[in-house]
Amino acid sequence: MPQIDGLRCVAILSVMLYHVQGYVVVKSGLAGESALHLLFAQGHYGVPLFFALSGYIITCQFLGPRPVELQRYFIRRITRLEPPYVISLLLVFIAKLWLLDLTFPDFFPHLLASLVYLHNVIFATHSEVNGVAWSLEIEWQFYLLAPLALAGALRMRGVGREIMLWLLILLGGLAHAHAREFGPRFGLSLLHYFGFFVAGAWVALHEAVDRRVSVSWRFDALGFITIVATLFALVSESRGLIALPALTALIVFCALRGPYLRRVLGWWPIHCIGAMCYTIYLYHFFVVSISGRLYASAFGWSASPDISLASFALLTVPIVLAACLLPYLLIERPFMVWRPGKNRLVDAYSVQPA
């Protein structure tokens, strides 16, 4: 679905700009308090948006005419996501041992915990190998629980299911807003973000039931209003965070129903970047770091925080996209095409993109 990949593009660019902003502030020593810095600093919202899209995609798989076989469901998740993830962890692990002052006995437990998606649980911190892996551990918690949760949701019908889903979305907003009160392990768990997964599931279930609602510019208007409201919610922090899962549900819904939103998100450069989001997510932070060192040595950091941020972002984003193209084609895409039992992995390397 081009629009879903388009939203993935929005999510990954948001995360990338969030890390770009943080890098500039840390390395340049310039305090970022301008509107541009404030905007980029809200890019962490890209991760909850990814969670909502996962909720939508997984739910759609359970809405087909034939019942989902759990064995095939889990095999697909493992063969699609696990190989690129493991390869990235091993590459980063070797690179950090080689370049940084780390010892194998101290660093290896972090690799093992990350490989089995338990670093959040064991260490209560982001992965020492690849910091962005924390969100992938939460994704896997959802993948494991989704079949059971969706089986219960599909047994319900009509208004009762709508009420239940929206209660869970609102409850998820409360959990998201007050996560700090429950400690770091709660903040790095599905409990902190479940409202976003439910938001995506609601969109999928609503689309499956109410197909009579046509594409309309009214959804474009509602989508624009919701995007502005989301920015205000992010800036207002604790008070606005409660509404984020509900606002995210509306963003995804309007992206599928608004003709102009559909056109923008479905534009081929945007949805092509979105298709690469997994590879970009795994490697972008390291490319940003390398680009930052090159930028600092070539140009130096400007006295203006805005100029430093804008120029570094304009330079770095294309470099990240270009640098991630090769690992996407060589590592991720073959596992997107490969279907165990239906074709061979080696044949997936010869399949041309659609």
Polypeptide structure, described:
The chain is mostly helical and about 350 residues long. It has one domain (about 1-350). The chain is about 80% helix and about 0% strand. It is built from 18 helices and no strands. α1 packs antiparallel against α3 (about 45-60), α1 (about 1-30) crosses α15 and α10 (about 190-210) runs parallel beside α13. The mean pLDDT is about 90.
Which characteristics define this entry?
354 residues, mainly alpha
Number of helices: 18
Poorly predicted spans:
none
Helices and strands, in order, run as HHHHHHHHHHHHHHHHHH
Radius of gyration: 21 Å
Beta-strand content estimate: under 5%
The helix-and-strand class reads mainly alpha
Quote the average pLDDT.
90
- Main pleated-sheet profile: none
Q: Helix amount, in percent? A: over 70%
Multimer state: single chain
Any idea what the shape is? globular
Counted beta strands: 0
Span of the ends, CA to CA: 12 Å
**Number of structurally distinct domains:** 1
